[in-house]
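S1.2 Input.
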Amino acid sequence: MSTFVQYLPVLNAALNATSAVLLVMGYLHIRRKDVVAHKRCMLSGFATSSLFLVSYLVLRYYAGMTRFTGQGWIRPMYFTLLTSHTFLAAGVVPLALVTLSWALRGRFDRHVRLARWTLPIWLYVSVTGVLVYWILYHLYPQR
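S1.3 Output.
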């Protein structure tokens, strides 16, 4: 693995964790009616998630897929987590894009309706991304 590529898994986990924190902060700000802070947090969360996606694709291009080495009861649990994470990650991209576009166009009625679905899915994907990293690189690292 090339030098910069070996650091991408931890960078990706950090980007996912940062995105999760920004999403929660954005949600808390909008609950307090602080629209400016909400917008900043959500745009920052979107940018952070976008950086994650680019970094993840670079990692997969240069390093290929990481093999899960765990055996026993953890194996079906890990693959269940990974499967839900993967399918929801694919779905959250268009959800986030549409939710963001409606907000930027001032269509707040539509934005709010879709954001009620987008936020929990996006948050789940961000948090499970960190869990997948932890399981793959710390609990069951490559031998």
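S1.4 Remarks. The mean pLDDT is 96.
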